[in-house]
Amino acid sequence: MNLMDALKGRRSVRRYKDEPVSRDYIRALLEAAETAPSAGNLRSREYIVVTRPHLMAMLAAAAYGQSQLASAPVLIVVCADPIRSGRRYGDRGQLFSIQDAAAATTTLLLAAHDMGLGACWNGAFDDDMVREILDLPDRLVPTAIVSAGWPDENPAVPSKRDLTEVVRWETD
Known about the structure:
Helices cover 44% and strands 16% of the residues. With 172 residues, the chain is α+β, with helices and mostly antiparallel strands. The protein has a single domain (18-153), classed as NADH Oxidase (3-Layer(aba) Sandwich). Strands 1-2-4-3 form a 4-stranded antiparallel sheet, sandwiched between helices. Helix 2 packs across helix 6 (92-114).
């Protein structure tokens, strides 16, 4: 698949077949995520892979009832590490670690699409509940819960904004 096809074809998939995703596929997703750009190449992010149904149900509750988190074969919680980034960049490290995690999440979603998996970036959740459920160290900030699995839906193409609405050219 070429990059433009991947960018245009990827969709947020929220319904999954009741089939597991192998560790090899999960490992490939994580390896892909780690190819994402990173401020200072610090890679100020970490991942928690969740496949236990009771933890997935708890994370769905922490995500305000987003049911796809309880029904997906795998969840990958992407966390930023602002302390790691902050050692080099001071206060700006907070932002850079969030950007690192977001870049990794985007790359993971594109890799999932390329591998034939469906995935969805879930950003609405109670941070403190996620921290408690996963017993996260204080230095990590959960930024996304990615649900992934073999798709059981084919979402429609979402509406797009015209470039004239979102781009301002500053030229001579």
